[in-house]
């Protein structure tokens, strides 16, 4: 058991009567067993503290390592996103350039095609003596006659069959010039020869048209419609008549409407 000592009157250490609570206690004396036990407790405490410090260092190191790894991963992801964004922007920019280039090529092709068709029309007009060659539509009425056609078993209709020569060379494919011909017919040509437009068969207007490669190696438009054509050229002179008698002629034959 521990002994609590204090200085006596003669300077010698004596045991304090008050024990650990005596204010004059100067030293504590332990037995060998108590001293060994105390040393063991101190060593155990130091080992525990050391282990706790090592564990805390390991945990701190692991936390820093994890944080560093997450930061690197985040930076890598940012770099990947930035690279992907940059590549996307480059692709979009390249696509926009290609689109603009294609648009310019298309516009040049349209302009070239328009110029080629204009030149072809002017040459065809000059070859046929149509004036003024630059302004003339290039369309000529070759033939126009009236037929009695059967609408059904009991009804007939006076149907005009007309052939218009176009300014377009028959060497051109139909797909190249079909839309242009139909647009020119609807926008200018038909009105100048007294045709009001595409309507039902019983009204005055075209109800059937077709294109064939006709005379002088030019495309022609054949039309069937009701209503009478004028007997001579009318309107702005954009359409010519090959012969003065090519309109107004009545055929007595009858044809069934196909």
Describe the structure.
The protein is α+β, with helices and mostly antiparallel strands and 258 residues long. It has helices at residues 32-128, 174-192; strands at 3-7, 13-15, 27-29, 139-150, 156-169, 206-213, 218-226, 239-241, 249-256. Strands 4, 5, 6, 7, 8 and 9 form a 6-stranded mixed beta sheet that branches. A hairpin with a 5-residue loop joins strand 4 and strand 5 (156-169).
What structural keywords apply?
single chain; 258 residues; alpha+beta; 6-stranded mixed β-sheet; 3-stranded antiparallel β-sheet; 2 helices; disordered C terminus
User: What integer value in Å does the Rg equal?
Assistant: 56 Å
Number of helices: 2
Termini separation: 135 Å
What sort of overall outline do the alpha carbons produce when their principal axes are compared?
rod-shaped
Q: Summarize the biggest pleated sheet.
A: 6 strands, mixed
The low-pLDDT segments are: 200-206, 230-236, 244-258
Write down the overall mean pLDDT: 76
| Strand runs, count | 9
Helix content: 40-55%
Order of helices and strands: EEEHEEHEEEE
Give the percentage of residues in beta strands: 25-35%
Structural class: alpha+beta
Task: Draw up the topology in text.
Layout: E1 3-7, E2 13-15, E3 27-29, H1 32-128, E4 139-150, E5 156-169, H2 174-192, E6 206-213, E7 218-226, E8 239-241, E9 249-256
Parallel strand pairs: 4-8, 4-9
Antiparallel strand pairs: 1-2, 1-3, 4-5, 5-7, 6-7
